[in-house]
UniProtKB/TrEMBL annotation:
Subcellular location: Mitochondrion inner membrane
Key word Zinc present: no
Keywords, sorted A to Z: Membrane, Mitochondrion, Mitochondrion inner membrane, Oxidoreductase, Transit peptide, Transmembrane, Transmembrane helix
Record gene name: COX13
Protein's UniProt name: Cytochrome c oxidase subunit
Keyword set includes Lipid biosynthesis: no
Organism: Dekkera bruxellensis (Brettanomyces custersii)
Cellular compartments per GO CC: mitochondrial inner membrane; respiratory chain complex IV
Annotated signal sequence range: none
Recorded family membership: Belongs to the cytochrome c oxidase subunit 6A family.
């Protein structure tokens, strides 16, 4: 099958067809001018739309973020006060741990082997009874 396609005759005829075609590309100044105008229109449109999105970002998005950030900051401040109060509670007043909490099948290979990787002394407690 491939032998038939690769014969000298097919190569010669395909090469002849390609070289003998009369479709030589010639520049058309009217189409070139139309293309350049279209390109300029696209550039103008992109400049105006990018300016619009820049204004939306500056005058709408940033104030919206700030408006949302204020109440979140207040809630986080209350949460920080609550965490400080929890630090002051002694271990005997802390709720009892149940057998299904802080299960360790084997020790972690870091630290003392009992605390997880994200252990936070201010939040986490491991009260041993």
């Amino acid at each position: 099958m491939f032998r038939l396609l690769a014969t000298k005759q097919t190569i010669k005829s395909n090469g002849r067809r390609f070289l003998s075609s009369s479709s030589i590309l010639k520049a058309d100044p009217a189409k070139g001018k139309k293309f350049a105008e279209k390109n300029e229109d696209i550039i103008k449109h992109s400049q105006t739309s990018s300016a619009t999105w820049k204004k939306i970002s500056l005058f709408l998005a940033i104030p919206a973020i700030l408006i949302c950030a204020v109440p979140v900051y207040r809630v986080e401040q209350e949460h920080a006060k609550h965490r400080k109060a929890l630090k002051a509670i002694p271990d005997d007043k802390w709720p009892a741990e149940y057998e299904y909490q802080n299960i360790r099948r084997k020790k972690f290979f870091w630290g003392d082997g009992d605390k997880t990787l994200f252990w936070n002394e201010g939040v986490n407690r491991h009260v041993k009874n």
